[in-house]
Amino acid sequence: MSRTRQIDIQRALALAGLFTFLCSCAKGCLLPFLTLYFRQLGLSPAMTGMVMGASHLVSLVWSPLASLLSKHYNKRRVVIGGSLVCSAAVVLVLLLFPPSGENMHFSSCSLSNHSSRPTGGPGDKLLITSKEPETSLSSPGVTVATETTAEEKSSLGNTSTSPHTRTGSAEVNETSRPAAEPSTSSSAGSHNTSSESPAAVARRKRSYLETRQQEDRTPEEVRRFEFLGYLKVMDPQHQLFFLILITVVAWESVWAPLEWTADDGLYDYLDFADASDRYSSTTLWSLLGTAFGAAGVGLLVSQLNCTLPGETPRSAVHFYCYCSVAVLAAPAAVYLPLYLNKKRERANGLLKAMQLVRGSPRALLCAVTTLMVGAAVAAVENFLLWQMQDHGATELHMGLAVAVALFSQTTFPLVADRVSRLLSSGRVLAGGAAVLSLQCLYYSVLWGPWSALPAQTVTCFSSGALWWAVDVQCEDVATPEAQRHVRRVYSALTLHLGGGLGSVAAGFVAERFGVAWMFRGVAVALTVWCVCLLLLQWKTPRQRRINYSRLLVANVSEASDSESEQERDWLDKAMQEPRGKNHCGRKLNY
């Protein structure tokens, strides 16, 4: 007879908390600073918003699908370990892309070391364009373009009086002119032909060979080379944008299955041990891990030099810390408590949760609010560090700002009881959105490196209050077993759908009007919605579901003493009556 394996709930929760802490710490080392790295590479705000929006939308679609497939094939542990290792490998590809040289922005450390360089990245040539369109030469109809590098301009200024230099420059410009342009005079054409340099002859010969090869290609080859040629002639900024977009989508594709798969496995494990009420304790470790990672890597990077050995920028430390912590979390995934209950399929749990949200007017208002708050939070996460950097903040200020906001969010449960006595959950939801609008308005008028910290300390009354109101709404519309799926619907609306739409919209607004005006626009939109939300809640009747378990407990405790024993013991009599009949029947058969 096989012995029943004992389940240690405390050990399971400790392992799950450790794994959640390490994964969140890895995210905190990189994700808050990722848009700042894109800015240093030269991406515009609109491009940055599209990249971050694409990552949110990929996670929205792929997370539930990957979790369902891993459960169906019983490969949860393989998926979790593979996500950690593959994400650490894919994210390092972002370090291989060189800066585009356009719209680049250096940190305060780089600006102090490169104050003599007006524009461009390290090692880039400085391009100087003269105000004069062109300069005439001695030969009629021949000009020299004045767009040269700094070294060439100095040498050109020293030898501008040399007749040989004038003739050589005229020959190069004449040979680079299109063939369809006629020569100014026959004498000038014969002079250029006779004194043509070997380099010009080689270029002309190469152009002739490429023309012949283009004529000999098939239509399929022509279309293929036209597409590659279009990518080749694209400016460096758009080339960098598409490379980063592809890499970030691949990175999110391997990271997205991790959280949902581990979450499902842990819940099934606790549900099997009849301890599903302890499931929500891992949420605290997620916030603490992200805060610790952001503050730790910010402090570490701020202590380093601007350039590491091997001409590596110090922003690469964020990627190295992410990979190190992700690989460190892989052994914890081996002992992660997971359980697969094949008898209880929950494939349609999300569909039922969406039906519950759609069937309640107040739940729909909560869903729209979480969608708008998610868009606003994405705008803050993507461009707050840009605003802080413009006012002289370093990685230390940024990391502490992110950590303070997360620590503040964890403190709202301490004051939730007092707040619930004064305000209903609907008004707390509207109040959280209103506080977030005030935070965005404050972010638009920052004046120094530390000026963002006061606004971050009140995050407990914005994001913390919002998620507390969402939990109360989940209890109102769903049974205890379905509450987790309803909360997932709200989190998907906030973190992924709202985050994707908000990232794209905020990027275009920031590029058109600036980051400060983008924050002001977000504040105005949230304020308008808060007023509409209060009016709609006032007009919407409150519908609470009937909690049958509480009703039965209340009926038992409030039972009247005047009830007869015959009414109380009806179940015992009903069970004893067929037993006697069966006994008599057996005697007759004998």
Walkthrough of the structure:
This protein has 590 residues and is mainly alpha-helical. The chain has 2 domains: 7-113 and 201-344, Up-down Bundle (Growth Hormone, Chain: A), CATH 1.20.1250; 348-546, Up-down Bundle (Growth Hormone, Chain: A), CATH 1.20.1250. 71% of the residues lie in helices and 2% in strands. The protein is built from 24 helices and 6 strands. The chain has helices spanning 9-41, 45-72, 76-90, 108-113, 150-158, 163-176, 186-194, 198-216, 219-232, 236-272, 282-302, 316-334, 349-359, 361-390, 395-409, 412-422, 425-443, 453-456, 463-477, 483-513, 515-539, 548-557, 565-568, 570-589, and strands at residues 127-128, 135-136, 143-144, 148-149, 307-308, 312-313. The chain is globular. The protein starts with 8 loop residues before the first helix and ends with a helix. Residues 110-194, 553-566 and 579-590 have low confidence and may be disordered.
What is the gist of this entry?
The protein is an all-alpha fold and 590 residues long. Helices cover 71% and strands 2% of the residues. Strand 5 (307-308) and strand 6 form a beta hairpin.
